[in-house]
Design goal:
There is one protein chain. The protein has about 325 residues and is of the alpha/beta class. It folds into two domains: about 210 residues, Rossmann fold; about 80 residues, Alpha-Beta Plaits. It contains eleven helices and 14 strands. Strands 6-7-8-3-9-10 form a six-stranded mixed sheet, with helices on both faces. A four-stranded antiparallel sheet has the order 2-1-4-5, with helices on one face. A four-stranded antiparallel sheet has the order 12-13-11-14. Helix 6 links the parallel strand 7 and strand 8. Helix 3 packs parallel to helix 5 and helix 8 crosses helix 11. The longest helix is centred in the middle third of the chain and has 14 residues. The protein is elongated, with a radius of gyration of 24 Å.
Length: about 325
């Protein structure tokens, strides 16, 4: 469905995208991750023909984006982080307008508007103006107008930004339903969203692609590389005192500790060894701490992200 080969884009002396290549097969929902400044937005703008690359190739559904940009646009739908909506228009007017500028008319337009109202759960707000809608419903309208022309491929940029937890769950479920019939590239900073929604994820850092795999396989590989992880909540000490004491436990490679408002200390300990949990318990007894909690933690996609991007946060580009 999409093929990117050796894509490169610079802005003056800044290399925003540095020779990345990847493919997205028909029917996949793929997460596109990276810290601010990694090159995600620049890549998506090139995929959607808003920017021309300095070098490389992009094909969407077999269409060369550089040679036939108008045809490529017909094959894709793009929902930016802030959906471009006219607040003074009604919901149905918005969808009809979006359909007409996509070349739809007559019965075909009416059918597509009805289908989008149903697919995106807009039945309760069809009589309202866009300006009257909550952020969650605005995102639904934005998604509906992105889908109005029935594109093969969707690019969704942070579709749940600014939503409350209930709205996030609703949009996430909507994306999963759409992903049953569409190919989706989903950019997001909400990493659990990727594990819940995507069959694969791409991670970009400093303009380079640093990971391309199933999210669960990436998590398992990170767990193997970094070792076991335990969470502790202890009383009778401070984070400053607990940190070096925990680092002296055999097998421990890393300790993060913070003082909690109630006087306890929360610690995350990483290390190796089959008896690491028992060793941590013995250390708590030896230090005369009250051990309120000790449990193993499975590695997460956040751990993968931090390991591959070093936690860097720069200005977005």
């Amino acid at each position: 469905m999409i093929r990117v080969s050796q894509l490169r884009k610079t802005f003056g002396a800044t290399v925003a995208v540095d020779g990345i290549s990847f493919e997205v097969a028909e029917g996949e929902v793929v997460g596109f991750l990276g810290p601010n400044g990694a090159g995600k937005s620049t890549t998506m703008r090139m995929l959607t023909t808003y920017l021309d690359p300095d070098a490389g190739e992009i094909e969407i559904a077999g269409v060369d984006v550089l040679e036939r940009p108008i045809e490529a646009r017909r094959r894709l739908g793009y929902l930016p982080e802030s959906a471009p909506l006219y607040e003074e228009l009604g919901v149905l007017e918005t969808l009809r307008y979006a359909g007409r500028i996509r070349g739809l008319g007559g019965a075909r337009l009416r059918d597509r508007v009805d289908a989008m109202v149903d697919a995106c759960g807009l039945e309760k707000v069809v009589a309202k103006d866009v300006g009257e809608l909550s952020k969650g419903y605005r995102q639904r309208v934005g998604l509906a107008q992105t889908l109005i022309h029935d594109p093969d491929f969707l690019i969704l940029d942070e579709p749940t930004t600014g939503l409350d937890p209930n709205q996030i769950r609703e949009i996430r479920a909507l994306v999963r339903r759409i992903g049953e019939t569409k190919t989706i590239l989903l950019s997001t900073h909400i990493l659990p969203e990727v594990q819940a929604t995507c069959s694969r994820c791409l991670i970009i850092h400093d303009g380079k692609l640093v990971a391309d795999d199933d999210p669960n396989r990436l998590v398992d590989a990170t767990a193997s590389a970094t070792g076991q992880r335990f969470r502790l909540v202890i009383r009778g000490t401070t984070a400053a005192a607990a940190r070096p004491a925990l680092k002296r436990v055999p097998g421990v490679s890393d300790v993060e500790a913070d003082d909690l408002p109630d006087g306890a200390v929360a610690a995350a300990v990483t290390g190796a060894g089959d008896a690491l949990g028992e060793e941590l318990f013995r250390r708590a007894v030896k230090e005369d701490w009250v051990l309120a909690e000790l449990r193993p933690e499975r590695a997460s996609l956040e751990d993968v992200f931090r390991r591959l991007t070093h936690g860097d946060e720069e200005g977005d580009r």
